[in-house]
Write a structure and sequence with these properties.
Blueprint (H helix, E strand, L loop, with lengths): L2 H18 L8 H16 L9 H31 L3 H12 L5 H15 L3 H8 L12 H48 L4 E2 L2 E2 L5 H25 L5 H8 L8 H11 L3 E3 L3 E3 L8 H31 L8
Amino acid sequence: MTPWVAAGAVLLALALDRLLGEPPARWHPVVWMGRYLGWIGPRIAPRGPQQGGERRILVAGALAWWGGALVVLAIGLALQLAVAALEPGPGALLAALALKPMLAWRMLRDEVAGVEQALGTSLDAGRRQLGRLVSREVMRLDAPAVREAAIESLAENLNDSVAAPLLWFVLAGLPGALLYRYANTADAMWGYRGLRAGLDWTWAGRWAARADDVLSWLPARLTALLLALVAGGLPPARLWREAGRTPSPNGGWPMGAMALALGVRLSKPGVYALNGAAPPPQAPHTARALRLAGAVVALLGLLGAAVLLAPALAPAPGAAA
């Protein structure tokens, strides 16, 4: 894939996401990934509390993860070779069509905006809308807590659904973007400690959780940096401190940056509180969070295209100064 084709694919994929949103579920590659993970998961995770055999279960989880990962990598490589065999215009379009399902900015934006809109109707409506975004219990949350959870999800998924797939596309092409989205989906479905839906994921999902941690490490910090940039700058020491308050090694970075940028508290009861001395968010903070996230998405597209084009625009060795 040439630099011009790759750069064009980034910009086209973001444009397709803005114009069309998500493809139908039956054609969505991430849905296919989820079906595989949902099919094989009960075959590796013990039912009920785990009683011994930790190493065997860990190995089974890793092998099941790699089974899907190798298929995803093979598909990504085949698509990349198909792109390379085409003329630049059709190649960029094919690459964009393959990359677009790995991105979900429009869906994320609409779901978060929908929480605020639903809160304008009733607290119960806001809670139900939030339940589409997060896995935590929502029906006991008050209105500020609903907003906190929605903004946290916006910040964290800004990394998972936009920044990380784009970064891995820049670094490793379509195989990289597809592998990241697979790893993130596996973590969302398997990356739990203890019981979920009657299955014990403590060891069965450990490989999936660690793989996502590794692949998300750099993108999460890039997302936080860009949020700080579009917000006009944030104190690095405070951002570092807030990022360390969450159990996740990565999620605290974009969430902490968003909390500081908005000047509000973002918390998960009993787990963490980011910028804890600040007031809880109100409706205008949700609107500003969406604007900041949108600016980060635009900046990611421009930066990604620029990095991909850099080799093509660099002066040839030995060229006259």
